[in-house]
């Protein structure tokens, strides 16, 4: 049985944390980093690791859940709940996706609904109530890798050997998608704007500007006969 791990990112307040999560994901053998909702992110802290991990985007948690269930994958919430198990007890049985909560509020009720079980990280000191989301992810992913028996990466001196970057590179400040998916999100934002949810008329809106830039990139690629890689 091939065992894989995934990280699901939804509603994380500090977008630069995604770059640091990508670094931990590559270190601990994560197959894909799944972004739900907002597609853009800040690659700060990744140290180039975003080139070595696959990104996938979904518009909703239910879409992400269906994708993972189609791959016979458990969804594990990283949260202190009444029935959460210590992560060092390795309560895993197969491929697992780890859903991490918002830095301030933790997992929402909607996020908890899609989880099959929960783990927490035992603490032994009395100086903090919780860990930074990227630190928590690193600990959980390492524990899963130990349980799964992932082979250790080869070392060279006091560093691990980094694989060569893929030949085909894309700008890693967004999760690349198909042209149809980008068009779908563009239409959705226009509908939400007409209902007063977003104001895309503002020139200083980084999310809107990024989406427009991505859409332009898609049209250029379509014209040249190329496609976006996922």
Summarize the structure in words.
The protein has 230 residues and is α/β, with parallel strands linked by helices. The longest helix has 19 residues, at 206-224. It is 33% helix and 16% strand. It is built from six helices and nine strands.
List low-pLDDT spans. Answer: 44-48, 169-174, 195-222, 225-230
Distance between the termini: 25 Å
Biggest pleated-sheet summary: 7 strands, parallel
**So what's the overall shape?**
globular
Beta-strand percent range: 15-25%
Supply the helix-strand structural class: alpha/beta
Radius of gyration, whole Å: 19 Å
What order do the strands of the largest sheet run in, or round the barrel if closed?
3-2-1-6-4-7-5
Share in helix: 25-40%
**What is the averaged pLDDT score?**
75
The total of helices stands at 6
What characteristics describe this protein?
230 residues; alpha/beta; 7-stranded parallel beta sheet; 9 strands; disordered C terminus
Write a short abstract of this structure.
With 230 residues, this protein is of the alpha/beta class. The protein has helices spanning 17-27, 61-70, 109-113, 133-148, 179-194, 206-224, and strands spanning 5-10, 32-36, 54-58, 74-78, 85-86, 96-100, 117-120, 155-156, 159-160.
